Amino acid sequence: MEKKDDTLGFPKIPEAEDVIVGELAERGEWIVANITTNSFWPVTAQKAPYRGESIWILPIMKNYFPAVAMRVPPGKNREECERLLMHFLSNLAWVQEKGFLVDGFSGGSLPAPMWRDKIDGFSICEEFDLSYFPEPTDDKALLALALMREGRGLNHPGYAFLSFYRVLEVALPDGKKRGQWISDRVDAITNHRAKEALAKLLAQGIADVGVHLRDSGRRAIAHAREKPIIDPDDPSDSRRLWSELPIMTALAQLAIEELLHVETSYTVWKKHLYELSGFKEILGPDIVDHLIRGEQITDERVVDVPKINVQLRRHEPYPPLSNLVVKEILQKRTECYMRFESEDGGVRIRFKLDFADERLHFDIFSDLAVVDTGTPQAAKAIAESRRFSKEYFGNGQLHIYNAETGALIARKDPYVPVNMHLDHEAANAEIASWDRLAVERHERNRRYGEEMVRLSTPYAVHVSVAFACP
Question: Please, which domain of life does this record's source organism belong to (predicted)?
Fold first, then answer.
């Protein structure tokens, strides 16, 4: 967890000794790519799996560059790891829609970023959301993402323009096809600044935007043997390039998505396939096909459902919502209802899988129940369920994991309560009261020599449940 500023409650930029701990303090051969960015960067270290390796996002630290780092694994050399870090960074820049440049590589027996004389003045965030993180392997896609990262990170309109135009050249090597594609797709641009820039070009009588971007932009920047030429000392040239840069940015992004098939975070969000994708794998294609078509399943089907952990992103796990076992699966046309319970039956949670709209539904008020059986464990479970409810109500992002493998099964966007207000003091007081009751019950049992009621041993295998009609 990141440190908070003692006076304002905001994330605090940490010292290096507070970051290089745990796995980051394990000695080995480390490689560090030091980052320069005109955007925000986290103040919390993050470990991310990428192509079978572990990449660390090192936070902004006082007097050090932000960075990404990895230990050189057996079978890989330094150059391979540096390239892997660069690919990771380009992917990160793509999903964040930001520009990250590498100021240099460092490393050693510990992941030591380069020193710099700066302790404040940063744009910061707590952590990056890596819920969507594509891993394209196509060489063209990788090059285009690298150029996109570079273009977004450059503070020079000419060089940034060139980087974005090179993305189009990667996606469409044929110049005639590229020009036609630009003419055909400029109307698909939705970025407000880019649309304003296009309107200005059209108002100037420029009919063929593709030809204009090529001749007055790409060629004028890259060459100086014939006019038009971009003059670095002419402020009007810089102003024109800055005004047209949003068009090139939007076209480059569109080319990567449409022609190289790497979706943006916005497209992934609009499709929201991540809400049901893991459950589709669990149910299997035949059952999913019935649900999508709304065709009632009339025969008994056996579905192998793993135990699940219900969590919230950036919050500590909730023990009562861990290792939940499926107890019931029901179908109602295109909807599938799954009910899970703790192994002692004290905690029950239900999800509705809507295959018509590709949505996972969960109602915090009606789909979670905890039974008070009078034991210390029950009181503690209620306290934790109240903590879950409070934190979910506060824009929590629901995540459902396979309890055995740790794989993410499903996730939802932040919960946004409508016309409701959370009384934080009352919620915290209720949690504290149940915590105290758990302690009191435990002490009562100890005094009277009663043995604590323990939860049954977790199952070691998946649970198969019949798929039934309501």
Answer: Bacteria
Ranges of residues in the chain with a pLDDT under 50 are: 1-8, 450-463, 469-470
Q: How far apart are the C-alpha atoms of 267 and 394, rounded to whole Å?
A: 25
Query: Tell me, what amino acid is at 274?
Result: Y
Rounded distance, CA 74 to CA 348, Å? 45
Residue 226 has a pLDDT of 67
The first and second tokens of residue 284, run together, are 């299997």
Three-state SS sequence of 170-232: HHCCCHHHHHHHHHHHHHHCCCHHHHHHHHHHHHCCCCCHHHHHHHHHHHHHHCCCCCCCCCC
Whose tokens are 């594509």? That residue is 134
69-124 pLDDT, tens digit per residue, is 999 999 999 999 999 999 999 999 999 999 999 999 998 999 999 998 776 667 88
Q: What is the pTM of this model?
A: 0.81
- Each domain of the chain, given as residue ranges in start order, spans 16-125, 139-269, 272-468
Rounded Cα distance between 342 and 320, Å, is 7
Indicate the DSSP class of residue 453: P
Residues in the chain: 470
Cβ-Cβ contacts under 8 Å for 174 (sequence gap 6 or more):
none
